[in-house]
Amino acid sequence: METNPQTTIESQPSPSKIKSPEGLELAYRYLEGGKNHPTLVFLPGYRSDMDGSKALFLWDWAKENNVSMLRLDYSGHGSSDGVFEDGTIGQWTNDALFIIDQITQGPLIVIGSSMGGWIGLLVATKRATRVKAYLGIAAAPDFTKWVWEEELTDEQRARCKRDGKLLEDSPYSDEPDVMTYALFEDGKNHLLLEEQISFDNPVILLHGKADTEVPWKIAEKIKSRLKQGQCTIRYIADGEHRLSRESDLKLLETEIRKLYGL
Prior knowledge:
Elements: E1 16-19, E2 25-31, E3 39-43, H1 53-64, E4 69-72, H2 89-103, E5 108-113, H3 115-126, E6 131-137, H4 143-151, H5 154-163, E7 165-168, E8 177-180, H6 181-187, E9 203-208, H7 217-224, E10 231-236, H8 246-260
Parallel strand pairs: 3-4, 3-5, 5-6, 6-9, 9-10
Antiparallel strand pairs: 1-2, 2-4, 7-8
Helix pairs in contact: 2-3, 4-6
């Protein structure tokens, strides 16, 4: 999964905080734009935060185009309270929904990156009347299922059950990736690719064919669970998992402009 190192943005004031139902201070940033466009919501990936390169690129774009935008940190991520290892897909989805419900009004366009793509799709199904479009960047719905079943060895699965977590070298950080047994177990309650996805509005998926973290065929699986003609996939032949190069961001901007009619 995508695990971006946290970016230090010294010129920015501290993010706003809101207390969750669990009593945790959750961090977010909200940009007030014009009233005639849906609010753009960005959901980051696993161990990433709202100051990653794609989030900041979209923030600048929203400013330039007078579009309201919300970016946030799930519990245990970035500037939010909480212990990362206590988190699950269900908890992080609830964090996102809570902030969205408390801070925004009206229609939304949701963008999710990697694990945020899974959470974004869950948000789209749970707030289907508000979410007017969804865009996934290397979206990874159900990753707990296919990582557990297809990528882990018997020894790793046994170790995860025994120790309650699995520590593996990270391609993005000096600190190891941590995946807890609770994360895998909770993921079973939020699977989307087993049946039709209950969301009817436009879906755009950006996925690199050179992505070694989330197989590009996951995009095809997502499309197969949506209505015919509902989903458009944009493959980047040499694109890797992060899709943060200038050319990748340019494609992202092109697709966002289409969704906003700009």
